[in-house]
From TrEMBL:
Residues 12-56 have a biased composition (Polar residues). Residues 62-71 have a biased composition (Basic and acidic residues). Residues 1-71 are annotated as: Disordered. This is Uncharacterized protein. It comes from Aureobasidium mustum.
Length: 71
């Protein structure tokens, strides 16, 4: 089956360049050398330590007030 538009078909495998044959672009693209600084890591850990396991929402107290049985 041919391509619907002229010039849209890939060349034969023996004529393809390395990128067309899925040649990897680098040795390990996930290791790019950028890491957060030590201060940024510590700040992130400090924020996690102060989090509640299930924080209350902004309307939780209003809902409790509306549904309470006290008059």
């Amino acid at each position: 089956m041919s391509a619907p538009n002229a010039g849209r078909q890939s060349p034969d495998p023996e004529n393809q360049s390395g990128k067309q044959q899925a040649e990897p672009t680098s040795g390990n693209p996930n290791q790019q050398g950028a890491r957060p600084s030590e201060g940024a890591q510590q700040a992130s850990k400090d924020q996690l330590n102060n989090l509640e396991s299930n924080p209350t929402g902004p309307l939780d107290q209003a809902a409790k007030d509306k549904t309470s049985k006290t008059t």
